[in-house]
Amino acid sequence: MPRLAGRSKSALIEILAGEYGGGRVERMHSVLFADALRAAGLEGDYVASVDAVPAVTLASVNAISMFGLNRRLRGALVGHLAAFEMTSAIPSRLYSDGFQRLGFDDSVARYFDVHVEAGFAREQSACRALAGSLAEDDPEAVGDIMFGASVFLTLDDRQSAHLLGSWAGGYPSLRAERSSR
Question: What is the mean pLDDT of the chain?
């Protein structure tokens, strides 16, 4: 937030309000994610399983951190977030449907359902109000916005290829599970 101003800052605050549950702790995405992990039989504590997660999964979070910690990369951070918000509803619906089909408790799917519920309004807010207004207010940021979106899409593609390759090969995508096999 401190790296943005005006309309793009307002749009980011709106998006973050959703991430933080709109003032309701039980609807915070981090809480819903931890609940989903626990309901699926995994550890839900903050970074509890990070050592088992492959680098390809952590790459996008690392990119966000790098963009966020460098003021000159604020456009890339906005582009990364906008690309995520614009592409997350459909995969979230598929994840939710898959968990339900496999018989998991509703609390596993709830995390993904929240992203589906936000849907079109969140996509438009990220695209037009956040990235679009930053591009209009600071035309020099356009290249960085596009770079950040490209980074997200590239890393997401690599993550997807890793998951699908692991499943097709008959082994888990997590490092610890793969090595103990």
Answer: 90
